[in-house]
């Protein structure tokens, strides 16, 4: 089993099933004892803001706020630097525990030994 799973989610409310899959896989991995790093990019960037996940709804899917809580309990959520800048999101705007970082950090994470990476 991988020691760490890095997931990059590019979809938000524009592609709800793909978005939900990314958060679900991340939370299941975290619950299984895998260290998770979930990267919010593109339209998923909005879920770094307080209250935005509660607005997301998909029938037969776990509530996004619950999934975010599970991921943060066992891992890290990161908002892409460029995606944040394009949306005028700053560190003072994001949920507690969400960091803003760029491609260099992403590449460093996915190139480490024992890491598996997924993109949604």
TrEMBL record:
It comes from the Bacteria. Gene3D superfamilies: DsrEFH-like. SUPFAM superfamilies: DsrEFH-like. It comes from Streptomyces jumonjinensis. This is Sulfur reduction protein DsrE. InterPro entries: DsrEFH-like, Sulphur_relay_DsrE/F-like. The lineage of its organism: Bacteria, Bacillati, Actinomycetota, Actinomycetes, Kitasatosporales. It holds the Pfam family DsrE.
């Amino acid at each position: 089993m991988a020691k760490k799973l890095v997931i990059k989610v590019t979809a938000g409310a524009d592609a709800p099933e793909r978005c939900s899959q990314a958060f679900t896989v991340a939370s299941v991995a975290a619950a299984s004892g895998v260290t998770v790093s979930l990267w919010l990019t593109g339209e998923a960037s909005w879920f770094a803001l307080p209250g935005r996940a509660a607005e997301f709804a998909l029938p037969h899917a776990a509530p996004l706020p619950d999934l975010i809580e599970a991921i943060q309990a066992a891992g890290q959520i990161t908002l892409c630097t460029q995606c944040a800048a394009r949306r005028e999101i700053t560190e003072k705007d994001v949920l507690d525990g969400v960091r803003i970082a760029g491609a260099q950090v992403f590449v460093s994470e996915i190139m480490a030994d024992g890491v598996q990476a997924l993109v949604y």
